[in-house]
Design goal:
The chain is of the alpha+beta class and 219 residues long. It has 7 helices and 11 strands.
Length: 219
């Protein structure tokens, strides 16, 4: 069964470019982004890993750890890092999980349980569903899942925007409207009464009986 929002992210132990990790322990008390790739030494994924490396500081500001994965061994990842740096100008400093047994890919339902074969002869097309991004919270629950086709490079600014919204909700019980960016007005959730909204936010605008907006709370 596929993972859903608020499911506990499956825990696992795996080898990475930074050594062996126990996933939940590695996440610690912050957020994590697990993003997957069908194969090492592929063009779109090379650009993505480098782009993410260039944004590492933005994720760190938000207390978010980054970790990549593909269905290839760690030794291949280490070699791939050179290509990524050459192509993008960014050095990958976050860990990359080696998953040649496809254990994690299957655990996260990115490959069927029946998938098999030597990863060195499996093609990107064989692994094309290993293209998901998972945002996982401090409670180890899945907060967001995005899955892209192999031919479409991911928009990591959108993942940052979604993280800002998720973290804002966790702190203030507000939601964010379509097209929201940090600093824009937010939505008061139905879990917050009118009286509580007045006390918390200093007021709100009732747009519809079920839609109340307010300025983004100050931290």
């Amino acid at each position: 069964m596929s993972l859903r929002i608020n499911d506990i992210a499956p825990d696992f132990t795996a080898k990475t470019t930074d050594g062996t990790i126990h996933f939940h322990e590695w996440i610690g008390d912050g957020y994590a982004v697990l993003f997957s790739h069908p194969k090492d030494f592929t063009p779109v994924c090379t650009t993505e890993l480098g782009y993410m490396a260039g944004m590492a500081g933005e994720f760190a500001k938000r207390g978010v750890k980054i970790i990549g994965i593909s269905v290839d061994p760690v030794a291949n990842h280490v070699k791939w890092k050179g290509d990524i740096a050459a192509a993008t100008g960014h050095t990958v400093g976050y860990p990359m999980i080696g998953d040649p047994e496809m254990t994690v890919a299957k655990l996260y339902d990115m490959l069927p349980a029946s998938a098999s074969g030597d990863p060195s002869v499996r093609t990107p097309a064989d692994n094309q569903t290993v293209r998901s991004v998972f945002v996982i919270g401090p409670d180890k629950k899945v907060k967001l899942v995005l899955t892209y086709p192999m031919t479409t490079g991911r928009n990591f600014e959108e993942i940052l925007r979604a993280l800002d919204s998720i973290q804002l909700n966790a702190r203030h019980q507000v939601a964010t409207p379509a097209g929201w960016h940090p600093g824009d007005d937010v939505i008061v959730t139905s879990a917050v009464s009118d009286a509580d909204a007045e006390a918390r936010f200093g007021g709100f605008t009732r747009v519809l009986p079920y839609l109340r907006t307010t300025a983004q709370p100050k931290e």
